[in-house]
């Protein structure tokens, strides 16, 4: 039989609870990298830096707004399919012709037949025709006009226009990360920023029709989750419809419990092939004459609120008391722990 005083037992429990923590606590603003087999980290320093780098996720609904920038000056106007080209001969008006560029990029001209014009400038085509007709005519003065270069744009507007949304289309990111855009087909967008996707789309659309431009917007977000764990009222997984601060995330989870350690909230963020943990001190929030930076979270962040050491010790005492009472041990001012015999003595 062994007799331990209550004070001695509680002291041992408090010491054990203090030793339960691994390593030194994180300092204010300190970051620790956790090497794993599949994660890496590159944390943002500014709270709002995550806003322009939102990554498109499967299930997101994107709004594609088309516009034709006919007001923008082009360094070199190139002849394209469906452009109407008018060729005027100064001294031989009977040879004048007006043709629309066919899908094969050609037009038909007198004495020459098919002439490939797609992708050429007006100046290049004029010089080429003067050289050719100089072999036939004594005075091959001519000039090339493009009286209706916007006909294809008008047709495109008619094709893209819908009654409810005008020149706007809603597209949904498929589970495989692809989106099917009008005219250009499938484009992989998952995990990319809006700037990256917008740049690729405009490069593709410009090859289809010069001046055709699109802007990409987030119509509905359905991919981001936030994980709030530890000493909060309702730990769990929460939807993240917009960028949130640590304080807002804790509020979504019902707030802190009584035993929460508010000065050591741990935020874990994943990027690439590593993860990072940093400490946020909520106990400094809203104090007078003290600066406090609201820490903004990114999608898939993990917020962990640990317990205070005294709370861990109290829970350990409670759990031990339940075990003691379950086994029928007597508990008074002194604890009497009866050792079971190692063997049965007959």
Automatic annotation (TrEMBL):
Residues 226-275 form the Soluble ligand binding domain. Residues 1-22 form the signal peptide. Residues 74-146, 167-207 form the Polysaccharide export protein N-terminal domain. InterPro entries: Poly_export (IPR049712), Poly_export_N (IPR003715), Soluble_ligand-bd (IPR019554). GO terms for molecular function: polysaccharide transmembrane transporter activity. Keywords: Signal. This is Polysaccharide biosynthesis/export family protein. It comes from Candidatus Nitrobium versatile.
């Amino acid at each position: 039989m062994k007799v331990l005083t209550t004070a001695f037992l509680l002291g041992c429990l408090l010491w054990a609870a203090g030793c339960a923590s691994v390593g030194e606590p994180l300092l204010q603003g300190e970051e620790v990298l956790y090497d794993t087999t599949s994660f890496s980290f590159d944390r943002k320093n500014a709270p709002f830096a995550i806003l322009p780098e939102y990554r498109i996720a499967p299930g997101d609904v994107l709004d594609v707004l088309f516009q034709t920038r006919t007001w923008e000056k082009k360094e070199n106007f190139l002849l394209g399919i469906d452009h109407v080209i008018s060729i005027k001969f100064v001294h031989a008006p009977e040879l004048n012709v007006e043709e629309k560029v066919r899908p094969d990029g050609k037009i038909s001209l007198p004495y020459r037949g098919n002439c490939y014009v797609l992708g050429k400038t007006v100046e290049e085509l004029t010089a080429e025709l003067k050289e050719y007709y100089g072999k036939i005519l004594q005075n091959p003065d001519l000039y090339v006009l493009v009286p209706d270069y916007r006909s294809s744009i008008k047709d495109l507007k008619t094709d893209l226009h819908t009654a409810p949304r005008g020149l706007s289309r809603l597209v949904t990111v498929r589970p495989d990360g692809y989106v099917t855009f009008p005219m250009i087909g499938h484009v992989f967008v998952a995990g990319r920023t809006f700037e990256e996707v917008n740049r690729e789309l405009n490069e593709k659309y410009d090859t289809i029709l010069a001046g055709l431009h699109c802007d990409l917007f987030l119509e509905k977000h359905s991919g981001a989750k936030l994980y709030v764990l530890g000493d909060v009222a309702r730990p769990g997984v929460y939807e993240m419809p917009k960028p949130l601060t640590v304080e807002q995330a804790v509020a979504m989870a019902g707030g802190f419990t009584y035993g929460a350690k508010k000065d050591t909230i741990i935020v874990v963020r994943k990027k690439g092939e590593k993860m990072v943990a940093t400490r946020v001190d909520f106990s400094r929030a809203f104090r007078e004459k003290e600066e406090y930076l609201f820490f903004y979270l990114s999608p898939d962040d993990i917020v962990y609120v640990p317990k205070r050491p005294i709370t861990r010790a109290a829970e350990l005492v409670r759990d031990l008391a339940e075990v003691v009472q379950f086994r029928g041990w007597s508990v008074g001012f002194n604890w009497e722990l009866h050792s079971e015999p190692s063997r049965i003595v007959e």
